Amino acid sequence: MVNFARPDYLGSLDEFKNRYVAPITNGQCIDSSEADLRLARHRAFVLTRELRPLVLRRDQQYLFKQLPPKKEYVLMCKLTDAQAQLYREFLKHGVPTRGDSDQVDVLGGYHIALAISNHPDVICETYKKLEKEEHNGACRKSKRHGVLDIFGIEDGGNDFDPYNSGPSHVATRSSTSETFLLAKSHGLRDIDADINANEVEDGESALPITVKLGSTAVPKPKRTPAARCHRLKFARHFMEDYVPNQLESSGKMMILMELLSVCQSVGDRVIIFSQSIPTLDSIGAAISKHNRHQRRHAKRFSFLRIDGSTTQSDRFRQIAQFNDLAEDVDLIMISTKAGGEGINLCAGNRVIIFDVCWNPCNDAQSMCRSYRFGQTKPVFVYRFVTVGTMEKKVYDLQIRKEGVAKRIVDEKTTERKFMSSELQKVF
Fold this sequence. Notes:
CATH superfamily of the largest domain: P-loop containing nucleotide triphosphate hydrolases
Main location: nucleus
Distance between the termini: 31 Å
Number of strands: 7
Radius of gyration: 22 Å
Family: Belongs to the SNF2/RAD54 helicase family.
Strand order of the largest sheet: 2-1-7-6-3-5-4
Oligomer: single chain
GO molecular function: ATP binding; ATP hydrolysis activity; DNA binding; helicase activity
Number of domains: 2
CATH architecture of the largest domain: 3-Layer(aba) Sandwich
Organism: Peronospora belbahrii
Protein name: Helicase C-terminal domain-containing protein
Number of helices: 17
Largest sheet: 7 strands, parallel
Structural class: alpha/beta
Order of helices and strands: HHHEHHHHHHEHHEHEHEHEHEHH
């Protein structure tokens, strides 16, 4: 943006990386040397001074006095045994590569890992669909071979190139409170209380996370021409004994259902965001199954859904229905790209970000569907992150980059929270 407003003001891209990006990045870790820290502080000071005449920044802090309070929580979810088994199979045999090269497709791999973290059903249903396409010969003819396509995720035009930029070029977003919740989510009945737990169980790092950005350490799986369009072959053996449509197969899903029950009991409407269409399908299936097993006069969940296939008229109708407090609606499910911007959902004050988006600006926009002018109740945001997986690593990178942004643009003091080795590892 600076180069657009004032060409070459900060030099060429290579000069900018050498002069600012590399030294500032090297000084952001707990294990950075004293020399790296001194150089990072000096370059950050120089960059802040150079940007001051060009950048005028006004964030939402100026609106806080006119809005109700907002609390943001990060709920650390465990992998179930089924998820852990499938995730290990993915690390051994399913990490995708770029075309015919040996370079790891980090973005594609992330969305596969994310699908496993959300619910094994997402992988299994997508696997069955791809098997059917491959059997019918549609796989070779279709262009929908990419990971983003098979999981119903639109390409947001992200210009992040992990092979050239390294981990420091991931955009950022963090939270004000972080906690680890057990799968049964005990204690959620006191839903408005602050969460102060800081401990993470030993299981967080149980799974191997060793592949570095841009590395070729992952052995390239042998692919037949037909298999190139089928990225989920690693799940074949897992599916032989897997029983689908089980709430207990996903740590996130168990916590979600507990959270929905509590929100319903206190009379708050919920907005659920996910970037994956199959994930929304799984959430909808879990809610529908819950409703079917409720007693005759028990309260059931009434929900709406907006995704990329929703027509404009249905979209407006569902938004109006959700915002009408006279309507019997408990929650609305929205795909991040289809409904994360430009709509008003002030009737809901409980926002659930079910998965960490690669571009955290999408998650920030999603939160603002509820936390905006017109909101009269305190807003609670719950971000689900699965520990011991790539999702947690991407979230850590986001926190780190937000620290850089605060220091350079907002001139705020930030803490160093991660080791350099932790930030280099993604899988």
